[in-house]
Design brief:
mainly beta
């Protein structure tokens, strides 16, 4: 089940290194975060880059974490790279994790895929 319509998918939006956003971010398509977002994030796909950091809840069909996320993840598919640092609970239908990924929180399988 997708929370977004595929025809609404746009080119990726990027929050680059050095950019700090205080407030919620919502968009269609893919959102690449290499900067800092202090607020909730909602998009079709959210990718937290190596230098990226989110402090808030992330809701997306797919969430890939290479950087830091402090807050809850609500997603169908979650990928945590070896460099990922997640402090918070992860609600997922599918989860994959590389050795070395750090998680301080609970995993909740949603059963929706």
């Amino acid at each position: 089940m997708s929370w977004f319509k595929k025809e609404d998918t746009l080119n990726p939006s990027v929050i680059n290194t050095g950019v700090v956003i205080k407030g919620n971010v919502e968009g269609d398509g893919e959102l690449n975060i290499d900067g800092i977002v202090d607020g909730d994030v909602k998009a079709e796909a959210v990718i937290v880059g190596l230098n990226g950091k989110i402090v808030g809840t992330v809701k997306a069909d797919r969430v890939d974490v290479y950087g830091t996320l402090e807050g809850k993840i609500l997603a169908q598919d979650v990928f945590l790279a070896e460099t990922a640092r997640v402090i918070g609970n992860i609600h997922h239908a599918s989860l994959s994790m590389e050795p070395g990924a750090f998680v301080d929180g609970d995993f909740r399988h949603t059963g929706k895929k």
